[in-house]
Fold:
Amino acid sequence: MISTRLHVPMVSLQYGVPTISVFCESKTRVLFQLMGLERMLYSHSRMGEFTSLIMSRSKLDAFRRDYLFPDCEAAGKNSAGHLRILREPLRGVV
Structure:
């Protein structure tokens, strides 16, 4: 899953779909960083790396095989069903 938005990638991760965020907003960047997925954020400065990844079958296969998913269930439990945990880091960013 490659997206510039926030919500669809979060659902995708919960269903075990490897996710990349391209040209993301600051809230998406903070959330990916909190989940340990900062390496899956591709800004303008990383477009060469991103292009190399998507143009190579072997790199895509390795990407899918080695993708480290965050513990989405634990994140949901830790947030107590709401976004309180996410709001705090976002206050200074957004």
